[in-house]
Design a protein that fits this description.
Elements: H1 12-31, H2 35-44, H3 46-56, H4 60-76, H5 87-112, H6 123-141, H7 145-156, H8 161-168, H9 172-193
Protein name: RNA polymerase sigma factor
Family: Belongs to the sigma-70 factor family. ECF subfamily.
InterPro entries: RNA_pol_sigma-70-like, RNA_pol_sigma-70_dom, RNA_pol_sigma-E_actinobac, RNA_pol_sigma70_r2, RNA_pol_sigma70_r4_t2, RNA_pol_sigma_r2, RNA_pol_sigma_r3/r4-like, WH-like_DNA-bd_sf
């Protein structure tokens, strides 16, 4: 049976080494990219970041706003950028995300804008139109049944004379006769009501 190894008792120095190593690791992680490095990267790549935003947005002012906002956001979160070499990647991704957000806001704004009101007639014109419609309906009711059918199919259903003839089962000449007589009777009835 082999002899048991004596267990080593950690010294205070070992604890200090471990604490120092943990502290150094925390400082490295907490340090992130420096303000100077971020500023230098931003200045060196400002034009390319602006060009990236221009591919996604349509006006220069919005592009400049997005790029500046990206710098501010990466600056405030610079401790998360552990590898200073990835600073430019963070800036680019932030520019893309902010551009997308700007586009979403524009689309939502366009959807929420109320549609313009159509040109509406004044109240007097609306009342006059209603009276004309009422007179026309009354005059149409006074026509013979075939005249009314021909006029409704021809002018309200927008059918050709041949289609009306086929639909009613009458000749083309009958459709023309009923139509002309119906229009003449409507004209007389409308003039009488005016």
């Amino acid at each position: 049976m082999p002899a048991a190894r004596p267990s080593r008792i950690p010294s205070q120095r070992d604890g200090a080494d471990t604490a120092e190593a943990a502290s150094a690791t925390e400082n490295t992680v907490a340090a992130g990219t420096t303000v100077d490095h971020l500023t230098e990267t931003y200045r060196a790549h400002y034009r390319s970041l602006l060009g990236l935003a221009a591919l996604l947005l349509d006006d220069t002012a919005s592009c400049e706003d997005v790029v500046q906002e990206a710098f501010i956001r990466v600056h405030s979160a610079r401790k998360r950028v552990r590898d200073p070499e990835k600073t430019l990647a963070y800036l680019r991704q932030t520019v893309v995300n902010l551009s997308r957000s700007a586009l979403r806001r524009r689309i939502l704004g366009l959807k929420l804008l109320s549609k313009p009101m159509p040109d509406m007639a004044s109240a007097e014109e609306g009342a006059y139109d209603q009276l004309e419609r009422d007179s026309l309906i009354k005059a149409m009711k006074g026509l013979q049944r075939r005249q009314r059918e021909v006029l409704v199919l021809r002018y309200f259903a927008d059918m050709t004379e041949a289609q009306v003839a086929e639909a009613l089962g009458v000749s083309l000449g009958s459709v023309k006769a009923y139509g002309s007589r119906g229009i003449a009777a409507l004209r007389i009835a409308m003039e009488a009501s005016a």
